[in-house]
Specification:
Helix content is 41%, strand content 19%. The protein is α/β, with parallel strands linked by helices. It folds into two domains: 66-157 and 285-353, D-Maltodextrin-Binding Protein, domain 2 (3-Layer(aba) Sandwich); 159-276, 3-Layer(aba) Sandwich (D-Maltodextrin-Binding Protein, domain 2). Strands 1, 2, 3, 4, 5, 6, 7, 8, 9 and 10 form a ten-stranded mixed beta sheet that branches. Strand 6 (186-191), helix 8 and strand 7 (212-217) form a beta-alpha-beta unit. Residues 1-6 and 15-50 have low confidence and may be disordered. Residues 1-23 form the signal peptide. Pfam families: TctC.
């Protein structure tokens, strides 16, 4: 019964914004004391149930609550994913996992809060790749270094795609878009300067020698709606945000910003930007990290807990409800991705923005 109470809180997080133990930057009581007590009870009861993460016992035994900082508001995508995976850590350790939403400065506020603590496997943070790639380039007040952190585990990664709307523009593929751009200015939907899709569009059209102008918004959904209405010729977005429009037939993916073709959309094999002659590779990536100096064996154990939990039916159901596809890469793999992406972003920034 106690474990079911805990799961009810996590499920509520998938469906809304209220889930297991959570502290907020504003100090609002979220969740209630009753929710916190339920989380604590659930952490110590039935943690070895058949549907829990079957992780072999390791040497690390946390002696206090685990706190995961999330640089996004409660109820958002990364908050929900963090809570799902936090459920697995909680079950495996028998220790309460608390979520602390610390928003602002592209994650720098949460990162500095983590750095203010002693290096401790119980002090963690969910981060996005932009914190170490784009954010420091476009906001000089953000001074964070990847060297100050230990990457624990990947959580999710996603490709970006360039889409067109043939019904409005008559353009069906990259060659046709390129031919259009040699005669007319290309209006492309993207986020504002400093954002990923703005950078990718600027770099691609710049390298192709095409006259292009960004029509910016604060979200990919708005960019795709602009494409649907014909206000832009093309738009760039993460694959999951574009999928609905592709399924509806109002968008056609013509380029993916990765080394390999993308086959995640039914009926489409999306050409790689590299195959078209432009080495502009970038993936959205979110990961769990700790302060440098935290016990590496403990961090490795946390990664194993997360990986094992994603293979349980419990996690699969939660992930399906949240439309979440886990990508639980190890810390070294994630760090290499960040470093490669940071180098590319620096090059693009110096060539097209600086």
């Amino acid at each position: 019964m106690k474990r079911r109470n805990l799961m009810a809180l996590v499920l509520a997080g998938v469906m809304a914004a209220s889930v297991m133990g959570c502290a907020s930057q504003s100090g609002a009581k979220n969740p209630s004391e009753t929710q916190k007590e339920a989380a604590k009870e659930g952490a110590s009861d039935e943690s070895g149930a058949a549907d829990s993460a079957a992780v072999p016992a390791g040497s690390w035994k946390p002696d206090h609550d685990i706190t995961i900082r999330v640089p996004n508001a409660a109820g958002g995508t990364m908050d929900t994913i963090t809570r799902i995976l936090g459920q697995g850590i909680q079950q495996s350790t028998g220790t309460t996992v608390m979520i602390n939403n610390l928003t602002g400065a592209s994650g720098a506020i949460a990162a500095n809060d983590l750095l203010a603590k002693d290096a401790d496997p119980c002090e963690l943070m969910t981060s996005g790749i932009a914190l170490f790639t784009l954010a420091p380039l476009f906001n000089q007040d953000i001074k964070v270094s990847l060297d100050d952190f230990a990457i624990v585990s990947g959580m999710v990664s996603e490709d970006f795609v360039l889409c067109v709307n043939p019904e409005k523009s008559g353009i069906h593929n990259w060659e046709e878009l390129k031919a259009y751009g040699e005669k007319e200015r290309i209006l492309f939907g993207s986020n504002t300067p400093g954002g990923t899709t703005h950078m990718l569009g600027t770099a691609l059209f710049g390298e192709a020698g095409l006259n292009a102008e960004a029509v910016t918004s604060d979200g990919t959904n708005k960019d795709m709606l602009a494409l649907t209405s014909g206000d832009v010729v093309c738009a760039i977005g993460n694959a999951s945000a574009c999928q609905q429009f592709i399924e509806e037939g109002t968008a056609v993916p013509i380029v993916v910003f990765s080394a390999d073709a993308y086959e995640g959309f039914e009926g489409f094999t999306v050409p790689s930007v590299v195959d078209l002659g432009y080495d502009i590779q970038f993936k959205s990536c979110n990961f769990l990290m700790a302060k440098k100096g935290a016990d590496q064996a403990a961090l490795d154990q946390i990664h194993d807990m997360i990986q094992a939990y994603t293979e349980t039916e419990e996690c699969k159901k939660l992930a399906e409800s949240a439309k979440y596809v886990p990508d639980i890469a190890d810390g070294e793999t994630v760090r290499a991705m960040i470093e490669d992406s940071a180098k590319m972003c620096q090059e693009i920034y110096e060539k097209y923005y600086h």
